[in-house]
Specification:
Blueprint (H helix, E strand, L loop, with lengths): L3 E6 L5 E2 L17 E5 L1 H7 L2 H6 L29 E3 L2 H6 L3 E6 L10 H13 L4 E5 L3 H13 L2 E7 L4 H9 L3 E5 L3 H15 L2 E2 L7 H6 L1 H9 L7 E5 L4 H15 L8 E7 L4 H8 L23 H10 L3 E5 L1 H15 L5 H15 L8 E6 L11 H4 L7 H12 L5 H10 L7
Parallel strand pairs: 5-13, 6-7, 6-9, 7-8, 10-11, 10-13, 11-12
Antiparallel strand pairs: 1-2, 1-3, 4-5
The structure holds pyridoxal-5'-phosphate (PLP) and zinc ion.
């Protein structure tokens, strides 16, 4: 039992009876992404402040009545209820009133995508599929493989050529059937579509499957609940296909419709300079077009976004804006997050923070604001992106170190001076 009222096409507005078979609007085909609408009046009788007070399920499944799933399998990974840290250091560097960091990297497969993949797996089981398939730049795939493994489903996964080794390793370990396409994400998506149609696998492709947004929106539900449903001014989200940003809006829309929050925060979509079709569409007031995929932030390098309508709507309806950041700004944000907050993010995970830094410095947002930033994925998935920083680590043999230390003792230096000397002096490299 769930509270789904109907499905609505985001292009032509046609309303459909809820149906498990229906993925996109039959009239508009693949572009006709569906929105799942709920009966909020009925939902409110069950989902209210009392409901949350007495709920002891500290995972995303505590939001089951707000989703489009019917069942709650017991044998699942613990997805969600990730920490929302209150930032002290970055907050004061930026001069903000409040800053919260939602660390999605601690999910079971280390990204926010687990929220969508768990829902996809539950839906696949509800509909009696034994194999589930997707194409992904990495995280959708690794999360699908992990969640499917736990539930005993087979997974078939299409990845583009540039998928980082960390994410590929996850697929192999989780036992997925991996097919690496010798091309970019666009080619990969096309190939997966053909295979899904031919072999009748369950389709976990983001956007196409309307239930995924319903899973991902739990990140917004959590942020709101962790802030005791108090007001928030901005949420910064990194954007590739546009599903995550759409989900964040949907989560807040649900809570607003249930009268659990007073207002929906402004949502800021952050893209990489080398791949910013949403930013271009937002600025030029055009439809979302095609772009190159030239950025280290592989998880948001999506040249043809699959959820253009919902992705734009989330920003306009919440009165937010789209912006882009360079790869250098992303790397700086990774370092800032690591050094000041102890969180290691992958490039796409830190892109939202890079956006916040830029937005504050260029006065796009008021410093007197309460801001949340979603850190969407863990840095261990893609250590290559910070390889150049690792090369800067000081290297010295133990003998040289001890000699240097004894020599420096004469000058009464402290440890910091010593480290500085090792870094800058003629250091003998060890093998
Ligand atoms: C998928 C992903 C995003 C962006 O989500 P979209 O739905 O593609 O916009 C951002 N960060 C990480 C780490 C991701 O895996
Ligand atoms: Zn339609």
């Amino acid at each position: 039992m769930n509270y789904v009222k109907n499905y609505e096409c985001t292009i032509c507005g046609e309303i459909y009876e809820p149906s498990n078979e229906l993925m996109t609007c039959p009239k508009c085909h693949e572009k006709g992404i569906l929105e799942i609408n709920y009966d909020y009046e009925a939902m409110r009788l069950n989902v209210n402040f009392e409901y949350f007070k007495h709920n002891t399920d500290y995972s995303m499944m505590r939001y089951k009545p707000l989703m489009s799933i019917n069942s709650h399998p017991l044998n699942i990974l613990k997805v969600g209820w990730t920490p929302l840290y209150e930032s002290k250091h970055i907050k004061s560097i930026l001069g903000l009133t409040k800053l919260y960091l939602k660390d999605e990297g601690v999910n079971p497969t280390a990204s926010l995508k687990d929220r969508a993949s768990l829902v996809a797996c539950i839906k696949a089981i509800e509909e009696n599929y034994d194999t589930i398939c997707c194409s992904s730049t990495g995280n959708a795939a690794s999360s699908l493989a992990g969640n499917a493994a736990k539930l005993g489903l087979k997974s078939v996964i299409f990845v583009p050529k540039r998928a980082p080794i960390g994410k590929l390793s996850q697929l192999v370990v989780y036992g997925a059937n991996v097919i690496q396409i010798d091309g970019d994400y666009k080619d990969t998506f096309k190939a997966s579509k053909e295979v899904i149609n031919k072999y009748k696998f369950y389709n976990r492709n983001a956007a196409i499957n309307p239930h995924l947004v319903e899973g991902k929106k739990t990140v917004a539900l959590e942020i709101a609940e962790q802030l005791k449903f108090g007001d928030l001014d901005y949420v910064f989200v990194s954007v590739g296909d546009g599903c995550t940003v759409a989900s964040v809006y949907k989560g807040y829309f649900d809570l607003f419709s249930l009268k659990l929050i007073n207002r929906i925060p402004k949502i800021i979509g952050v893209q990489a300079e080398g791949c910013k079709p949403f930013v271009d569409a937002f600025i030029n007031r055009t439809e979302v077009g095609e772009s190159a995929e030239d950025t280290i932030a592989d998880s948001i390098a999506v040249g043809i976004p699959r959820n253009p309508v919902k992705g734009l709507r989330a920003i306009t309806k919440s009165n937010g804006f789209y912006m882009s950041v360079t790869d250098e700004e992303i790397i700086s944000a990774i370092e800032l997050l690591g050094k000041k907050e102890g969180i290691f993010a992958e490039p796409a995970g830190a892109a939202a923070l890079a956006g916040l830094v830029k937005a504050v410095n260029s006065e796009l947002i008021d410093k007197q604001s309460k801001v949340a930033v979603i850190i969407t994925g863990n840095g261990l998935k893609d250590v290559k992106s910070i390889e150049s920083k690792v090369e800067e680590v000081s290297k010295i043999s133990s003998i040289d170190l001890i000699n240097k230390m004894n020599e420096d003792l004469k000058y009464n230096t402290n440890a910091n001076d010593l480290f500085e000397m090792i870094k800058t002096n003629e250091v003998k490299e060890y093998e």
